[in-house]
Amino acid sequence: MDGIMTSQPNNLEAFWMPFTMNRQFKKAPRMLVSAEGMYYTAQDGRKILDGAAGLWCVNAGHRRPKIVEAVQKQVFELDYAPAFQMGHPAAFELASRLINLMPGDLDHVFFTNSGSESVDTALKIALAYQRARGEGTRQRLIGRERGYHGVGFGGISVGGIVSNRKFFGSLLNGVDHMPHTHDKAHQAFSRGQPEWGGHLADELERIVTLHDASNIAAVIVEPVAGSTGVLIPPQGYLQRLREICDKHGILLIFDEVITGFGRLGAGFATDYFGVMPDIVCTAKGITNGTIPMGGVFVRKHIYDAFMTGSEGAIELFHGYTYSGHPVACAAALATLDTYQEDGLFQRAADLAPYWEDAVHSLKDARHVIDLRNLGLIAGIELEPLPGQPTKRAFEAFLKCFEAGVMVRTTGDIIALSPPLIIEKAEIDRIFTTIREVLATIE
Ligand code: PMP
């Protein structure tokens, strides 16, 4: 107790910050103390325009009253309830609401608390499904280079980012990676989906030939790769992946942790591209970022395959203490109301052409070597400073923040994904700021 009472409120040392240069940050911290709508307020009182929806999650904008009130009400009523052999109404209501948003027969949802948990849950369901249907030799998983699927061991194994993998031992066995779909020589400055590259899906055939389909459980991809710099799938690519998976009885998993809940101007990338995966991973926008939550959607044949054994047996040995947490469910229900009442998915679709023009207005901005966009998402790729990769983009991030605009960077790419409530004048401000900042950077 003494320790609690005497701890220094402003000591930054104790918190080991994630994906952060801790020592550098703690010398010059960027603290956010409140948020509303499109803006954060920094500790020094400055308003910061949120060009990243927090971390790709605050799709309806910050501190929406309906969500805040729903959370408050739920905490007072039912602070926590387990979901193992017990239930509470909000979880069932939320599941029913969510599956109505999903296309086709993606009609069951397993609740998690994050994108990473959704990915590991999806991979486990895929493996267990293959066993349940008598195809237990199908144990291999296929991911993709430059894929980001969170930080669980499953996610980093199928993920394709070397720095997220190389420090952590031997990872999962039996994982292959398809090549990523980005090629500047053929795609630079494409508007929307690049025309070139649909054939890259045929790499999946090569992997199937190598191992035989009877050994392969599932393929996982982000429909649009976000965290490695906004890589837009080439035209026809996702359709081709679906065809190859169908041909060989392989499950197709879409990791829609970023693309879900309106980011592309449709409910899900699944709708946007018209490609039906077997499993969809979600998180982030499910609660507008307010409370941690994720959900894994599965098609009917998958759920049904688990429901054939004795009724007295647990069908899937998997779950989290906080699966379907009542407060998260309340936040998610109010978030869905907010998306629907404000027509935010359609709003994103309507704004997308304006956004596209704004993105491509940077074509002649200093250091820019590629621009990519889809829905309300964009990647601005900078020429790396010779011998110092990532430095230029990080400096751009710092200077944008100073100028009152929050962007994200990954490698030498600036990634943008504003809340879907953004106004045109705010879009203009983001791109004007980036142009001006880039002009001042070495
Ligand atoms: N998958 C994708 C596609 C993501 O973008 C992310 C997070 N950026 C994750 C999984 C992991 O989500 P979380 O950080 O909530 O675990």
Automatic annotation (TrEMBL):
<dbReference type="InterPro" id="IPR015422">
    <property type="entry name" value="PyrdxlP-dep_Trfase_small"/>
</dbReference>
<dbReference type="GO" id="GO:0030170">
    <property type="term" value="F:pyridoxal phosphate binding"/>
</dbReference>
<dbReference type="InterPro" id="IPR005814">
    <property type="entry name" value="Aminotrans_3"/>
</dbReference>
<dbReference type="GO" id="GO:0004015">
    <property type="term" value="F:adenosylmethionine-8-amino-7-oxononanoate transaminase activity"/>
</dbReference>
<keyword id="KW-0663">Pyridoxal phosphate</keyword>
<protein>
    <submittedName>
        <fullName>Aspartate aminotransferase family protein</fullName>
    </submittedName>
</protein>
<dbReference type="InterPro" id="IPR049704">
    <property type="entry name" value="Aminotrans_3_PPA_site"/>
</dbReference>
<comment type="similarity">
    <text>Belongs to the class-III pyridoxal-phosphate-dependent aminotransferase family.</text>
</comment>
<dbReference type="InterPro" id="IPR015424">
    <property type="entry name" value="PyrdxlP-dep_Trfase"/>
</dbReference>
<keyword id="KW-0032">Aminotransferase</keyword>
<keyword id="KW-0808">Transferase</keyword>
<dbReference type="Pfam" id="PF00202">
    <property type="entry name" value="Aminotran_3"/>
</dbReference>
<dbReference type="GO" id="GO:0009102">
    <property type="term" value="P:biotin biosynthetic process"/>
</dbReference>
<dbReference type="InterPro" id="IPR015421">
    <property type="entry name" value="PyrdxlP-dep_Trfase_major"/>
</dbReference>
